[in-house]
Amino acid sequence: MTKEDYEKLSKPHVPSRPVMKNCIRAFLSGGLICVIGQGIQEAFMAIFGMTSKEAASPTVALLILISVILTSFGVYDKLSQWAGAGSAVPVTGFANSMCSAALEHRSEGLVLGVGGNMFKLAGSVIVFGTVAAFLVGIVYALLGWGG
Fold first, then answer.
1. Under 8 Å CB-to-CB from 86, ≥6 apart: which residues?
2. Whole-angstrom distance, CA of residue 62 vs CA of residue 106
3. What is the mean pLDDT of the chain?
4. Which of 6, 30, 43, 92 is the S-S candidate for 86 at Cβ 3.0 to 4.6 Å?
5. What is the mean pLDDT of residues 94-98?
6. Please, is 94 exposed, middle or buried when counting C-beta atoms within 10 Å of its C-beta (0-12, 13-18, 19+)?
7. CA 49 – CA 143 distance, rounded (Å)
8. Cα 101 to chain center, whole Å?
């Protein structure tokens, strides 16, 4: 059986994907996470008298903490199954993926299990961010921007 024959045979049995429904769910869940983050930032500004720039870092830290706690209790994974990319894109999704890897491999020990597997995903993200920032910095330096 050729690849084309197999595709013809299997195509009627493949369930259709609800693309529009998935997009709406991702938009709503990602938007809700951002609204919660904005609410936290506004609370930091109102309660502690911070500027928006000063409140940004504790807001991100608190969102990461909330994500890790929800991941530890299995709540974030259920949200992710429903929300799709909407819960994976914000910083909370990155924290969820790192925490999930740490929880999954904790029986292998702290260094080789938790540390080694937790940074499999984080390592590539950090390397990409560092290389991208370096290349953008070179372009800015060559063009004389960013003074």
1. 25, 26, 27, 28, 29, 30, 31, 33
2. 24
3. 87
4. 30
5. 83
6. middle
7. 39
8. 13
